[in-house]
Specification:
The complex is a heterodimer.
Chain A: H1 4-13, H2 19-26, E1 30-35, E2 38-43, H3 46-55, H4 57-67, E3 73-78, H5 90-107, H6 130-141, E4 150-154, H7 160-174, E5 180-184, H8 185-197, H9 201-209, E6 213-217, H10 226-241, E7 245-250, H11 262-268, E8 272-276, H12 281-294, H13 301-310, H14 315-331, H15 338-344, H16 358-369
Parallel strand pairs in A: 2-3, 4-7, 4-8, 5-6, 6-7
Antiparallel strand pairs in A: 1-2
Chain B: E1 2-6, H1 7-18, E2 32-38, E3 41-47, E4 51-58, E5 60-63, E6 66-70, H2 71-80, E7 85-91, E8 94-99, E9 103-107, E10 124-129, H3 130-141, E11 155-170, E12 174-193, H4 194-202, E13 208-213, E14 217-222, E15 225-230, E16 249-254, H5 255-266, E17 275-281, E18 284-291, E19 295-302, E20 311-316, H6 317-325, E21 330-335, E22 342-346, E23 352-356
Antiparallel strand pairs in B: 1-5, 1-7, 2-3, 2-6, 3-4, 4-15, 7-8, 8-9, 10-13, 11-12, 12-23, 13-14, 14-15, 16-21, 17-18, 17-20, 18-19, 21-22, 22-23
Helix pairs in contact in B: 1-2, 3-4, 5-6
The chains are: A alpha/beta, B alpha+beta.
Amino acid sequence: MTNPIWRDILNTLEPTMSRPNFATWLASTDLIEEIPGVLTITVPNQYAKSWLENHIIGDIEKLLRKGVDNYEQLRIVVSKKGATSLEDLPILQRVVDETPNEGESEKAPKTNPFNPKYTFESFIVGNNNRLAFAAAHAVADKPGEAYNPLFLYGGVGLGKTHLMQAVANHITLNNPKKKIAYVSCETFASEFIEALQNKAINEFKRKYRSVDVFLVDDIQFLANKEGTQEEFFHTFNTLHQANRQIVMTADRMPKEIGDLEDRLISRIGWGMVADIQTPNFENRVAILQAKAKQMNFEAPPDVLEYIANTITNNIRELEGSLTKLATTAKVEERPVTIELTKEVMKDLARPNTKNITTKKVIKVVTEQFGIDPTD
Amino acid sequence: MKFNTEKEKLLNAVSLTSHLATTRSTLPILQNLYFETKENRLLVKSTDLDQTLEVLIDGTVNEKGALTIPARLIVEYLTNNPDVSITIESNDLDLTIQSTNHKAKIKGLAAEEYPSAPTIKPQSKITLPLAALRQAITRTIFASAQDETRPILNGLLWRFNGKKLTIVGTDGYRLACQSLELPGDQQGDYIIPKRALQELLKLPGESELEVAFASNQVRFTLGDITLTSRLIDGNFPPYEAIIPKKMNVEIAVSASSLAKSLKLASLFSRDSAYSTKVLLEGDTIKISAVSATIGENSNELKLATPVASPLNISLNAQYLVDGLGVVDGDAKVGFIDAKSPITVESIKKDQYLYLLMPLRSE
């Protein structure tokens, strides 16, 4: 974070000098200390100090005299690169803290923080998600050995979180001793910031760097959060080096998440990247059938087909509509018919009334390009 | 500037200094080499702003002056020039290179624009044998961190303690340290950037190296070559704390055969951080790796003396291979249990120690 006074000065100087000179000598300087009259700025190296002193110190002093009360003196120091904390050394950490921690975790009551409904058994597999399902299952069977990291991406409400929680549930079931951290990226970011504010950063690091399985939802929220990204990167590295399983989800491919550091993208690529597509019509009907069975709700096939046709790209909405329909039918004691379904779903209506046919494709294409369909 | 010398001398100087003339810099002039006459010699200099290399070459100065010239061009030109004697002459911003049968004119940039820094004022100096130092750096530098996010681990610790110098590198997962006997007394900890030490390794010859430390800089002088680098500020992690006092199991094996078995196993563990299982039982060491996607591999080596109790441990095969790679002949590998550090030493007691953490597995 650049000091505002210094920021102003840099902004004034930037247009007066060549771009390379500015980028090399001034871009990474900062004002670090301001005791009345005496200002201290840091520069990245000895050369920058000499260059500033030989070329531009006069201009800077002129600006400072204008902008700062009682300006007397400017000091230029070479910044101190370094200062790594011990927390960045897993080799040391593990030796030091491992043993006491283990006793504690066994004493702690085992609660399952995951939604027990989200299992592999309740996940409807179709062509749209077969790879993601297989990869997640392999990971859950052998955490850290199959695909590490596993990266799942797909649109909203298509089952990323379901799969991720299924991994967690499966591991908890088979191996209750494993420490699993499941966190949404936003929680990770806000905990990180909170830890920074409360100076509890070591605790934060220990919390996430000691887990066996690290599940992070929605990592697209890392975009534009440099500090969190850096911390996430180290957590990632520590865990990956120690062969702990990492599973991440996002709503798009790693490359397409804007402003994600390259080193992070390349690390994500080390493991398996699997996508979840929108389900096709048959899958949607299958999902509804499964859901109806689970709710003990009898719905005629044409109703299910109608819903599957109306909601095409979001499983959460698909299931939501069915729940809503079931509730309405029960409360109002009405038979489950297409009419009722239409009524219930009118606010959700975004109907896909026609399945795409060859005829339709020809029609749209010919209209677009202004050609005769018979050509 | 007009200067005459042997082509080979000039070529050596520009090749060496060109390492620091990076094309990655934001400042175009840093891709150039700086030439300046100094009495009857020519100074060739380059810097990446953190490190600086200077080489003085003998010859005849006919006219004083200074100029900067694109590094890559002059290196390639001189490499391919078959002539023996060479004269360089500056005319404004052009440099004419004249040899028996060849002539070139290279466009340069003004010497005044090349960054300069004051010469360092050493607080302490010591002379070290380059050959031993080179070996110590080679045996430790690979264990230091690759990424630049943890600056301290991106350098090697030089710890002077009386008549002993210990050089340590670690990336947080493994650690290598080598000690050397010193001719004189010296005290202090210095963290020297990896980049500077990589350059130091490339310096020619086997003679004595003078090392001078200032508050935040170090200067290496080898005859007519000077390498200056900033020091990394901060405290190196207390690495002694993790060096085990006593190992439960120690085996003596040929470093190269163990490394070969591990390399075979690592082919099958690339997708799981080179996670490889090592089982010590009786007089056998069994190394195996399994991958869900690739397949599996297992290897057996015989031990000269059987181990007292069996031990099963998972480790990063690549890390162990790295450590064995710097040991000549037989290595002594020590284990405590599946959670404690593994040590690698040479059977020859050459003051070298390599340490890696096992991977945790259930």
